């Protein structure tokens, strides 16, 4: 696994972790927000019930006072309805405050104060039923106004405390929202940053790979060119070697052919033919000469020609020079000179001998002797 | 198109070496050891050039060339022989029948040059061993 791939893998692992963390945080915050909303609704409902209970109590007392003054049954009915609503709101407030001890205590305190007011109302109604106007006036005059103020104060205190709690909760939620928002922004920023880093790595790696590929391709091209050049050289060298080999074989066969051809010429001559060296020793004979002497070539080669061909010597001169030697020395042909051929039985036979010097670049290297019978 | 050379010689080794030489050069080769084989080869495919030996079994290369010339007057003929002919003999006697003369002792490269020259020329020049 190469370095870039490991880096990209690491970046994606961090990205995955970051995203999972964000998702977990978001779900947790959503749940918290949901719970908080429920609490806020609950608190608002509690405040509303408290306010409604106090308002119902005030309406009931107003209706009672109006009934006492006017004796209007509608007012009495309104009073009864208001007390009934008061009772319902208190029950609702008690139910809403059931999970919190302080709220429970507040509701109980409020209920006690309202019950005290209800007791006064019941006493006034009882006096009204009995027609005891004095008692009514007395009770009304004795009614402690601070009790009503205390009830109002209690109501404000309860509402104020719960509103304070709401504000506190609101601040907490605000801060939490900010934190969540910041966390998401940081997460998104981190993700973007990691993606950018990853992209940069990938781009850098691709660029590097492309560069390496280009270098490799160039190297391959160069190598191929070198191989092609070397192959061409080898082919040329091989072709040259084969040509030299062919030429060599051609030369060998030409030489062999030439020798065979020369041999054929000598051997096909019907007259005896002897080839001699410059020292007049036999180097070659033809079958006619072998027949004449009665010996085969191996017995004749390297023997002096004078052993087998005796020339007639002109004895008139002061110096007796062998005519064959003279012919070779003077480089002139000797033609039909009288001679005797001596066979292996030392039998003599008269012949006419001719010698033709063998010239190699103006140098006599030997001679060819031919014999024919003398008639 | 590949050019066709007919080589005529009664020695197998000569034919073999010539085949090797000309095939290496990309020529198509037909070969014959006797005049009869030579005529059959010519009938099968007209050669662009003929190389013949002088001394053939029971025949003569020049005589064979004389009879071939009647049908193929424009085909160049090289006489390749071990028999030595001097320049005068070539000019006066042989040039009427053959286009070029080569002695078998001469290098193959010289023969190859003559073949290339004859097969690339529009007009067949007369060459001799001395030209090489």
Quickly describe the structure:
The complex is a heterodimer of chains A (375) and B (132). Chain A is α+β, with helices and mostly antiparallel strands and 375 residues long.
Write a concise keyword list for the protein shown above.
heterodimer, A: 375 residues, alpha+beta, Four Helix Bundle (Hemerythrin (Met), subunit A), Beta-Lactamase, six-stranded antiparallel sheet, 11% strand, rod-shaped, B: 132 residues, alpha/beta, five-stranded parallel sheet, two-stranded antiparallel ribbon, 7 strands
Q: What report would you give on this structure?
A:
The complex is a heterodimer of chains A (375) and B (132). Helix content of chain A is 73%, strand content 11%. The mean pLDDT of chain A is 90. In chain A, a hairpin with a 5-residue loop joins strand 4 (334-342) and strand 5. In chain A, helix 1 (3-70) runs antiparallel to helix 5 (145-268). Chain A has 8 helices and 6 strands; from the N terminus they run αααααββααβαβββ. Chain A is an alpha+beta fold and 375 residues long. Chain B is of the alpha/beta class. Chain B starts with a strand and ends in a 12-residue tail after the last helix. The chains are: A alpha+beta (375), B alpha/beta (132). Chain A binds chain B through residues 239, 242-243, 246-247, 249-251, 253-255, 257-258, 261, and chain B through 11, 13-14, 17, 20-21, 24, 82-83, 104-105, 107-109.
